[in-house]
Amino acid sequence: MDIVILVAVIAVVALAAISGLVVSGRKKKAATAGKSADARATATAPAEPHVGEEAAGTAEAPRRTIEEVGLPATEAEAPAAPAPAEPAIETPEPAEGRLVRLRSRLSRSQSSLGQGLLSLLSREHLDDATWEEIEDTLLTADVGVAPTQELVERLRERVRVLGTRTPEDLRGLLRAELLTLVGPDLDRTVHTETRGAVDRPGVVLVVGVNGTGKTTTTGKLGRVLVADGRSVVLGAADTFRAAAADQLQTWGKRVGARTVRGPEGGDPASVAFDAVKEGTDAGADVVLIDTAGRLHTKTGLMDELGKVKRVVEKQGPVDEVLLVLDATTGQNGLVQARVFAEVVDITGIVLTKLDGTAKGGIVVAVQRELGVPVKLVGLGEGADDLAPFEPEAFVDALIGGE
Ligand SMILES: Nc1nc2c(ncn2[C@@H]2O[C@H](COP(=O)(O)OP(=O)(O)OP(=O)(O)O)[C@@H](O)[C@H]2O)c(=O)[nH]1
């Protein structure tokens, strides 16, 4: 009987345990399912929104009234942001007399030369030591050895003949001798007109080492020509640096001149050819071609510039080849000048940055070196700071005269 009771108790306990396990297992399952559903909702909601969630999203979006909702056509017609206005075409100032107007730029940096010479010449005794100092002053201003010796010899002779010397006498002597050195009678015309009765634009090639102010000078020269009433096409044959073409184009746009350019790294000769063709087709007066001047090898430069010139000449002669030199580079500029002169026939020199140096004597030295006149000078970064070179105004600026 005891055994029967014991079996019955065990059976009841076992039953209770089994039913308890089943209930807690169900509860756990339900809880896990709930958690994972939550997690799924968080992880996947943005990618796979459920209908309910979409509805909730819509409900939360700011509501607009029917008046506020424009019809598609109305929205399309809404005023767009204003397009950047084309810059107005500028009217450059006339080139005539610019050197006189910009004279202060020259005299500020150059007057040490003229004033130094004048004060030395005013000494009571012009002994050998003083003449040596005069020589040194000229050499420091980059006049060059041979021209310096010539100047000193002639001055010595004239001072000796003169006997008595007033400050006016000395100023007059110095002015005359410096002027002779600079060359008052050289032809400094920039040839921008076609030779002969051919119906094509004048062609000007602008060459020089990068950084000397070549592109800027091409742009400024374009302005000088536009100021004189000529129509101009610019050729960006410096394809080495895309920014150079952009820079030139900006110069052109300012005065309404078209710029012909090619792909970066493209063939400079083909851009130059296209520019002349464009100028001819458009009936332009002048085509100005900016070239690249990388001096890493002379052969490379020779090949490139030589080709540009040859290709342009298929359409007619080049009327002017301007070499741009940075006046602040002194003797280095002369070395560059020599290399370029071997590569192309230079017909004129542009000396830039004369506003930033006291070495204006480079005008004399470079003319001697190449046998070619300085035709234009750069006297600042401003758009109209390029002036035709006038020997008298230049010498007057040096010695601070009228
Ligand atoms: N002070 C002064 N700066 C000048 C003059 N001419 C040019 N510059 C400046 O010299 C810098 C070089 O001029 P660029 O025209 O870019 O020289 P670049 O020879 O064409 O050189 P790439 O563009 O590299 O081919 C610029 O900052 C010019 O504004 C000048 O007469 N006076």
UniProtKB/TrEMBL annotation:
HAMAP family the UniProt entry points to: FtsY
All copies of domain SRP54-type proteins GTP-binding, residue ranges: 373-386
Organism: Streptomyces abyssalis
Protein name per Swiss-Prot or TrEMBL: Signal recognition particle receptor FtsY
Pfam families per UniProt: SRP54 (PF00448), SRP54_N (PF02881)
InterPro entries: AAA+_ATPase (IPR003593), P-loop_NTPase (IPR027417), Signal_recog_particl_SRP54_hlx (IPR013822), SR_rcpt_FtsY (IPR004390), SRP/SRP_N (IPR036225), SRP54_GTPase_dom (IPR000897), SRP54_N_sf (IPR042101)
A GO molecular-function annotation: signal recognition particle binding
Start-end of Low complexity biased regions: 32-47
Database matches in SUPFAM superfamilies: Domain of the SRP/SRP receptor G-proteins, P-loop containing nucleoside triphosphate hydrolases
Gene this chain is encoded by: ftsY
EC assignment: 3.6.5.4
EC class (word): hydrolase
Membrane-related topology note: Peripheral membrane protein
Cell membrane among keywords: yes
GO biological process: SRP-dependent cotranslational protein targeting to membrane
